[in-house]
Write a structure and sequence with these properties.
The protein is mainly alpha-helical and 140 residues long. The chain has one domain (6-139). Helix content is 60%, strand content 9%. A three-stranded mixed sheet has the order 1-3-2, with helices on one face. Helix 1 (36-66) crosses helix 2. The longest helix has 31 residues, at 36-66. The relative contact order is 0.12. The structure holds zinc ion.
């Protein structure tokens, strides 16, 4: 069973990007509509978003309980849980690296070669400062 998400096809993406996931919303270029590997890559980011949201919500709930907060505080913090994956991806390069290595490993199960995945992971788009050789080692 797939987690709820929405895929839209659009060319309104940054240059050099075939797809992007923002929470449960996936944007994919129409030219990649039948690319099962790309869909799997982006869906992995959707799964990461759900996992980070749930884990952050649980952590916040525990903190509120331990600190003696009220339910209103927890509700006020819910948006933070939903933004945790996106914020970590944007601001924390090690998290972004983990997320992309995880997603490219999934995409490789659909036929993407290790060498091509390494070149893509080393792309400046991700801002990870990787060489293809280092990216290749991380993807093994
Ligand atoms: Zn990705």
């Amino acid at each position: 069973m797939k987690l709820p998400h929405l895929v839209i096809y659009t060319d309104r993406l940054p240059g050099g990007v075939a797809g992007a996931a923002n929470g449960p919303l996936v944007r994919t270029r129409p030219a990649y509509r039948s690319d099962a590997g790309l869909h799997a890559h982006e869906y992995r980011h959707v799964q990461q978003w759900y996992l980070a949201s749930v884990m952050t919500a649980l952590l916040l709930a525990v903190l509120v309980l331990v600190c003696g907060g009220v339910q209103g505080t927890l509700l006020a913090l819910c948006p933070a849980a939903l933004a945790s994956h996106s914020l970590a991806y944007l601001l924390w390069p090690r998290y972004r690296l983990w997320a992309e290595v995880d997603a490219y490993r999934v995409q490789m199960r659909y036929g993407l070669s290790l060498d091509v995945a390494a070149v893509r992971l080393a792309s400046p788009v991700y801002g990870l400062g990787l060489t293809p050789a280092r990216a290749r080692a991380l993807l093994l």
